[in-house]
Amino acid sequence: SRPESEDETQEQSLELRDTRSQYRNYSELIDDLSLRANYVLFIETALSNGVEHPQLFASADVNLMIFDAGAFWSQADDYLLANVRKMYPGKIYAVLNKAIPDNLEEIYGEIPKQRSKFRKAVKNFLKQFI
To answer: Which of 12, 29, 44, 90 is the most buried (most CB within 10 A)?
Structure first.
């Protein structure tokens, strides 16, 4: 292996601190922290606690909300998500964590699997009666 030059190895440290409503948008945050980043990640608490950084959330190009696929979803969660979507239209995308592919068939339809010729024939035969 070849030795790396100082230019090739740059370490950045980030000071963790409470930034609650200190910044109006991501540009101010990045300027203050002297970052040159393509992405800034904020980890928010549960949706039921509200959006902790509304100014940053509103100014983001994309907001990803990660949900546990195995968690119970209640009407309260529907209400909270609807409110967040009203406040920040068109900027929210969801990602399911801990998802089991077989449990997603209702959303995506049947997920193709490797099947033997015999299983394919049986499946095609049974489809005629469904």
So the answer is: 29
pLDDT digits (tens, 9 = 90+) for 10-39: 455 555 555 556 777 767 776 776 666 677
**Cβ atoms 26, 60 nearer than 8 A:** yes
Instruction: State how many domains the chain has.
Output: 1
What is the reported pTM? Answer: 0.51
The token pair at 23 is: 């910044």
> Which residues constitute the domain of residue 70?
26-127
The tokens describing 88, both together, are: 């920040």
121, with CB counted inside 10 A (0-12, 13-18, 19+), is exposed
Residue 51, helix vs strand vs coil: coil
Q: Which two tokens stand for residue 100?
A: 């089991």
